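Look at one such:
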Amino acid sequence: MKRSVLTCLLSAATIWAYGQEKPIDSSYANSHYLQRLELFKQMPNQKNEIVFLGNSITEQGEWQELFPGKPIVNRGIGGDNTFGLFARLDEVLASKPAKIFLLIGVNDLGRNLPQAVTLNNYRRIVGKIKKESPKTQLYIQSILPLNEEILKYPYMKGKNPQVLALNEKLVELAKEFNVPFVNVFSVFADDKNELKSEVTLDGIHLRQAAYLQWANYLKSNNYL
């Protein structure tokens, strides 16, 4: 894992990929990322861990309280992208978790990363999980919609069509790897396919109480 951290530090510089004329920003190793990763490495592994893995939307969920009595661990890091998540998979897979609920990609959209880059990273993530922890049940969760009217982050404006397009590709990816696709988008989207105004304060993140709807959706579909 030390090699992965070194790699992430070096990746603050941009990389060229996929024939793009503009450089791809693959950086992710900010101070929050490194501090969270340091904490994760020092936490003891549990038997049959259930991992919620992703960015700030995952990090802000009180998963242990939403599913009392289950060996839940929160492996969300605010601001993370598909490059950063792949780089820290070794820590996640060390426990050989029973289940992983994966949600990542909205920060890729915020950085204007080409969809092909994000999907390639997804394939790397899913492939590594299946290879190194084949008994782990992986769930690919949909990217959540945004609320344009409330949205407080200018760089995320106009991204909802890309959210829809990426989710369509994730459905295909889930079928390709024979893993369940969890359509959390449907829980929080209004009739315009935007994030319901009552579940968010900033147009992208969820109110704490909204996570109850998420948990109930997972329970009602027997994912947990």
Summary: DSSP finds eleven helices and five strands in the chain. Residues 2-220 form a domain with the Rossmann fold fold (CATH 3.40.50.1110). The first helix runs from residue 2 to 10. Residues 82 and 109 are 11 Å apart (CA to CA).
